[in-house]
Amino acid sequence: MSYLRFDKTLMTNLEESLTREILRTNRSGAYHCSTIVDCNTRKYHGLLVIPVPELDDENHVLLSSLDETVIQHGAEFNLGIHKYGGGTFSPRGHKYIRDFDCEKVPTTIYRVGGVVLKKEKVFVHHENRILIRYTLVDAHSETTLRLRPYLAFRSVREYTHENSQASRHYDEVENGIKTCMYPGYPELYMQFSKPVAFNFDPDWYRGIEYPKEQERGYDFNEDLYVPGYFEFNIKKGECVTFAGGISSIDTASLNELFAYEAGRRTPRENFKNCLINSAHQFLNKQDGESYLLAGYPWFKCRARDEFISLPGLTLSIGETEKFEMIMATAIKAVYSFIKGEESHLRIYEMEHPDVLLWMFWSVQQYAKFVSKEAAKEKYGELVKDVMSYLIENKHPNLQVHDNGLVYANGRDKAITWMNSTANGRPVVPRTGYIVEFNALWYNALRFAADLLAGDEEFVTRLQNCYEKTAPSFVSTFLNEYGYLLDYVDGNMMDWSVRPNMIFAAALDYSPLDAKQKKGVVDIVTKELLTPKGIRSLSPKSGGYNPNYVGPQIQRDYAYHQGTAWPWLEGFYLEAYLRIYKRSAISFVERQMISYEDQMTCHCIGSIPELFDGNPPFQGRGAVSFAMNVAEILRTLNLLDRYNNQ
To answer: Fewest Cβ atoms nearer than 10 Å: which of 324, 344, 354, 478?
Structure first.
C-alpha cells in the first residue's frame, strides 16, 4: 500500500478531496499547485505558474488547467472539474477517479466504462515546464483523447476577465501550438510526444470561482480563455506526453524526459522522505543566485525565514553543499545591508533587527553539523564583521545599551517574527528589550567569542559585553512567576505568556541557569504546547484568539494571538531534550508523530504555515511553510543523535 494513496471513496467526496492540495515546484520559482482532483480552489492554483521578471516580482498563472475528455463511440466523458456560482461543479469529472497516488509522482487513475486512463504529472527541475503523461491502461474499442487548455496569463495576485485585448493568435509548432495572450508575457508552448490535431475554437469560460479566496474574504471569480482543443487517438498501452512550457522542445524526447524526471524523484514512502521532498521545493535559483522561499504559494525569500530554515532544510538532511551555496548569496545581501548599499538580490526584510542575530545562529548550526574549524574558515570573517557592526551600534534599529542588552523600536512598525499589521499598525507592537532578540544576542556574543578564539583583543570586547548581558537579561525578563516577560520598554512590561521566551532555554548559550530554563520549559508545556506546535499566546492571557479564519483583518488579529506554529516547537523540543536528556526521547517522538497526519491532508507531503490553537487544530495559511518543515527535520535529526548516544 502506498504511503500517499487516496481511493475512490475519498476522491469522489468533494468535501474531503477539495481540502487536499498538491504542490510541485522547480528550482526557478515556478510551480504547479491544485487540489488532488485538479479543481483549482485558489487564485494561486495552476498547472504552470512561473515568475515573469520582465513584468514584476510576482508569479504568474499561464496555464490554469487542462481538461481531458475521453471519447468512445461518439460519446464524450469530460474528466475536468471547475467550481461555478451557486455551488455548481461542472463538469464533474472527479466521479470517474478510481485512485490517486502521489508517492513518487502525482498519478490519477480514471475509469470510464471500459476505458482505464492513467495521468501522471512532473515538473521539470531546471526549466519552466510541466509534463503530463497519459497512458491508456485498458480500452475495448477505439479511443480518442481531447485536451482543452484553460489560459489565464495573469499575476497570482489578480484575476482575468473576458476582454477584447487578449490575443487569439497562435502559431503551429512541432506537435502543438504556441500562444501569448498579452504583450510582455512569454509564449506558452503546448506540445505532445506525437502528432495531434488542434481545433481552433476560442471561447471564454465565465464565472469560475475559487472557494478558498471566498473563505479569506477576497474576490473569488474570474473568466478563463480557452483557445480550442487538442485531439488524438490513443491505443491500449500507449503513452502520450503533454508539455506546457515557455520554450519549444524536441517532442521526440518527451516520453524519455518524463521517465528521466520521474526517476529522479525520491519516493514519499514515509514521513521523513515527505519532508525531505518538501525541503527541496523551497530552493529557488535565479540569475546565478540561490535562495530559500519562505513558503508556497505566495511567499518570497524573507531574510529571517531563510536563516531560521537554512540548517533544517540542508544540514539536517546531509546537504552541506546546499547550505554553503545558499549562504553564499545571503552573505552578499548581509554585506550590502551593513555597508548601506543597494542590492539586486531578492532577499527581503534584511533590515529587521533580529535578522543578523539569526544569521549567527545559522552559522552556529553549521559549526555543530560540520565542524568549528570549517565554520571559522568559511564564515569567521563574516562573523567578525557583522559583530563589529552591531557592537559599534551601526544598525539603524538594534542598539546595544550599557547594560549589555539590545534595544529595538517596534512601536510603529512590526519588527519581529510576530509581524501582522492592521490599519497600518502592528497588531502586537513588541518594542524595547525584546526577549528573543536578547537571547539571540547573548548566544551570538558567546558563539562569536568561541569561534574567533585566538583573536584576543576582539574576544575581550565580546567578553566584556556578554558578561553584562547575562545578569541584565535575568533581572530584566525573569519575573516572580518563573517565566520571562515578552518585552520590556521602560516601565512598560508585557506579562503575556508567549513562546518567544523558549529561545533563552533552547539556544546553545543561555543567560539562564538550569533551574530557570526548566521554569520556562514547564510553563510553555503547560500553557502553549499543542499537538501541532506552540501557541503564540496562552489561553490565559488577554486577547487570546486561536482561530485563523475569516476576512483579512480578522485573520490579522488572530495571526499571533493564539495560533500554533510548528517551527517554534523545534526550539521547544531542543530545550526539552537539553533539560530532560534521554528521558525526553519518547515524549519528543510522540510530538513528532502528531505531525504525520499532515502528510495526507492540507498540502500533501508538507506542513502548512500555522494551525488553529484550539482543537481540532486545523491547518491554515500557506500550504507549505519552510520554517515548519525545517524545524521538524532538525528535530528528527536531534532525535537520531540522542538515540545514538
So the answer is: 344
First to last CA, the chain: 34
CA angle 159, 554, 292 (to 5 degrees): 60
pLDDT digits (tens, 9 = 90+) for 36-71: 999 999 999 999 999 998 898 899 999 999 999 999
- Which residues, at least 6 apart from 89, have a Cβ–Cβ distance to it below 8 Å? 14, 39, 81, 82, 83
Burial call 402-428: b when 16+ CB within 10 Å, e when fewer: eebbbbbebeebbbbbbbbeeeeebbb
Rounded Cα distance between 328 and 332, Å, is 7
Q: What angle do CA 25, 30, 33 make, to 5 degrees?
A: 60
Task: Please give the Cα distance from 632 to 179 (Å, whole number).
Answer: 43
Q: Which residues contact 397 (CB under 8 A, 6 or more apart)?
A: 351, 353, 408, 409, 415
**What are the cell numbers at 185?**
508575457
Based on its alpha-carbon atoms, the radius of gyration of the chain, rounded to whole angstroms, reads 26
Distance CA 356, CA 394 (A): 12
What are the cell numbers at 344? 539586486
The DSSP line for 156-210 is TTS-----SSS---EEEETTEEEE-SSTTSPPEEEEESS--EEEEEEEEEEEEE-
**Grid cell locating 600:** 495526507
Q: How far apart are CA 179 and CA 373, in angstroms?
A: 55
Amino acid identity, residue 52? V
